[in-house]
Amino acid sequence: MNEMTPIRARKPDWLRVKAPTSVGFAETRKLMRRLNLNTVCEEAACPNIGECWTQKHATVMILGDTCTRACAFCNVKTGMPRPVDPLEPEHVAVAAGELGLEHIVITSVDRDDLPDGGAQQFVKVIEALRKNAPQTTIEILTPDFRNKADHAMEAIVEARPDVFNHNLETVPRLYPTIRPGARYYHSLRLLERVKQRDPSIFTKSGMMMGLGEGRLEVHQVMDDMRSAGIDFLTLGQYLQPTPRHAKVVDFVTPKQFASYGDIARAKGFLLVSSTPLTRSSYHAGEDFARLRAAREKQLAR
User: Fold this and answer.
1) Taking the complete model, does pTM exceed 0.85, yes or no?
2) How many domains does the chain have?
3) Which free-text remark accompanies the cofactor (predicted)?
């Protein structure tokens, strides 16, 4: 090994997953290729891809495979994106139908090059799904639409996705190094405005653990999220995609994740997922059913 090659921390046993080899995995990949769709599962090197694709669950990443930002944690390539694909909304709807999805998660790269940050493409995808796959509930995981007009977010809310997710990713102190193109309070305010505009839409956000955040800082982010009316919190372990990305400062144990989960539930979130392998869209369909049930129980009191 070249002595200049950075050495990544070895994963503990609880983060080891099997390489995907199933027929379902191959079929899901073939479908995505045929429809010319990108997935965050592949682009972000998600450790759960084998499990999810075997069950024919995939998180579609719209607006291309090239991001205009360069976050220190993200494996999606950075550069000048290609023009928006006008056929993409229809292709997403076809994929949802062929996979038989009850719940779909749609995310995207950041598109700071577009006047609306790509908001209209989210709207078109939601409309195509409502028309062609009406049985499928829709969860979106959006960029922050920073420096875009308010109507970018408002247009998406008016299209009425079932879940509006935007990840805060980390604690405010780490934003300059981990998420330099974003602003913590802007992201928090985005989710607050979604809830104010349409309280019936579930709001969701998540954090990566192991980047050097302090326990009290995590508790403060939870409090900020609750003040913004966020319903669903996800906490998962950050994994370094390549030696060029931000290093893992520590591997948070399953016991510590369980403790964070207990604290978050005590703070009033409708639903919490806090495990090392938790990701924004991991088990999203099952979680949506639990989220809806939790709201119904709350309203029945």
Assistant:
1) yes
2) 1
3) Binds 2 [4Fe-4S] clusters per subunit. One cluster is coordinated with 3 cysteines and an exchangeable S-adenosyl-L-methionine.
